[in-house]
Amino acid sequence: MLNLHCPWKQILSLTAILCVSTSSYLSTSCSASQPPLAQAQAIAAPIHLPAPEPTSHYTRSHPAPVSPFLRWQEMPQAVAWEIELSHNHSVFHTTKKIYINGYNVKLPDNYPSDHFQWRVRALDIDAKPISPYSAPQTVYISHALHTPLSPEPTSVFNNGNGTVLLYPVYNWIPVNGVSKYEVEILNAPPENPHGIAPSIHRIDTQEGHNFDCYDRKPRLSTKPMYWRVRGLDEQGQPVGVYSPAREFTVNPAAEWQIATYGDSISHGGGNISYSPSQFEYSYQSYLNFPVINLSESGDTSASLLERFERDVLPFHPAYLIIMGGTNSLRAATSATDVIADLTELRDKCLAHNIKPIFLTLPPLNPANIYRAFQQTTAEDWQEKFAEVNDFIRTQTHIDIAADIPTEDGLLPTYYGRDGLHLDVPGKKLMAQAINRAWDKVN
Predict the structure, then answer these.
(1) Partner of 51 for a Cys bridge, out of 132, 169, 257, 394, CB 3.0 to 4.6 A?
(2) What global pTM score does this model have?
């Protein structure tokens, strides 16, 4: 069995996908608890998915360049992908290290043919197949096409409910062999599309790795913003050119009535390799009313309190849906301290004519957390969660935790494969509970 723990640790350390990727957690959790493998069963029922559906097609009349990008349908239950390239039934390349539904092909030097075949299948956390291979697809290439290489952006914001993020996460299909990227944020379309040089409209850059970048700064402007990405070599020099620029808007003057506020469970993402910009993993996308997402991965109850004035007040929401404290409680922070933070956050809201609506905290599965991320959980987490949830139930609240089935008090793998972030079924349960209760709490 191939052990994917190292790739997951590498990806998480580079992208901060975990909502608990803070030094305070890492420094306290190991001393506060023991490896939790005996606390719960980490293995769920086997997953059997249909074959992935390819979405990129290259024909003789419309061939690909010599380094084509292959795309296929996203399948939320897949953690990774295995792709196989062949020519005349002879396999010349295969890899399991694909964590987004696309792949940039790098053909061997002096590849002698004008075509090759490919197929792809879904993998689980242990790199075991959970779907059949897709039907083989023939890709025709033209050696006369020398399109400059650039990553292929996949994040699309402002495209439905829950798709406006104060802290955007930028995703792309990476260039084969490149692991370091620069994301450029602009306040106008670039004057040099597909260029190498920075734009005169640049307002900031963020460093990304592999296939995504979690923006660590809030992005808000009354005007549209743009993002694009380019690969870098080990010396920081460009590999190819910038990708096409994508527009997004986070406008505080747009009269948002309702905002959501929390850590990565509210920010979005799940199933280890899916980010908040893959919106099927955001509960906000299933709500019956529009919201803006002001959440940030990595937040504790203390950091929610600290950034309130900067990140909430510019939007003047009438309602703030709050879920916070998971990161604090599963580390060494006491329930008393989390309750104090939530109480102060409530008072700040009320002082600014914002109605706070708290969500109860869903359960964890420490064994699955350890299995996915090699991070331990405080042994008394259940007692602390119960104490905080008892407090939340005395406030204006929606009891989402009551709607999530448990197994011996633990989060079932079906609802959160990594033991922490709710997957699509869990996010839908969250939204259903909020939709059902909304008229009673607003």
Answers:
(1) 132
(2) 0.90
